[in-house]
Amino acid sequence: MDSCGGGPGQASAGRSSKRKGAPTAESATPDAPCHPRQAFLGSAAPLGGTFTATCRSGCGEPEPATVTSTSGGVQVVVQGETVALGPGAPLGRGAELTTAGDGQVVGACRNGSGLAVGPQSSVFFGDSLCEQSDSGALDITRGQLSLTGLQPGISGTAAGTRVTSGVGPMVQTPVSQAVAKGAGASFSTTYSQAGKIGTAVVAVTAGAVDVTDPATGALTTISGGHQITVSGPVTDVVSAVLPSSRSVQVGGTATAFATMINVGAGGAITATADTGAASLPIAFGLCQTDPATGACRGPVGPTATAQVDAGATPTFAMFATAGGPISFDPAGHRIFVRFRDAGGVIRGATSVAVRTQ
After folding, report:
1. pLDDT tens digit string along 145-190?
2. What is the CA radius of gyration of the chain?
3. Which of 187, 93, 176 is nearest to 133 (CA)?
4. In which domain, by residue range, is 262 found?
């Protein structure tokens, strides 16, 4: 486990031990020299309490936003662990943030970009608000996400560098994609769903924002003081790793199987694999399989896409090849298989522990 010196970092949920010199939530600042992907408070800790400053995934990751205030019920899920989130904690790539009916989270970046998550909201940080690396996407599947004063924040990491003409991250819902066109833009996205129909409202308060309907490819530029509403049918996936694949020990190449059921509208679903907030030396391959034989129905690739009708239950194989040692840590070392719709929004996910020892 790498240390981040005195900067904010990641703390394991529910662990009470503290490192000497660990900062408190009040003292953590967004200009610390090291930026791990995620930090959070233990589930029993009060908001504003002390958290351990360590890097589970190492330094050199995209810079996270820093939480400036929270209110009401707020939780974040990282690597399958649900914990409380307090002021001063970084909020970075791989976090799944949920607020209750009275919950709200406000955060900021060193470059001046800001975010606010409203009550009854669910947001997955597919990338960082402050520095976009690969997907550059924030997925909202319920409630409201507001971004303010967006500034360029592109960083090159091991995951790759995102090339885009927009500023800040893309905000995705199951029926819309929104990207600011220039520095200083501010906008909010509100998403709701009734049955299998989703509705997104993108309201721009400053600058201009490109809004795309992923179902049709239609792009509309919205200027400050205006808004647009996008509606359409959505898929909804329930997924799980098959019982025989609950833990994967990788020597050469190991295989795990995942299944899903589409309880929403039919559509294209793409399976991807990653290691969440942890940086692990693993290469992935995926394919859709024949449920009866387990054989791949097509070539193995970095992703696997299938047309999934309503009520269908396709299965997928995930092949993992380790490029170095991975210690036994079921909570921290996991492989995540995520299912995304045609718009790139995560509609379901499952995970399995991984190790080489």
Report:
1. 999 999 875 443 333 333 344 677 889 898 899 999 988 999 999 9
2. 20
3. 93
4. 237-355
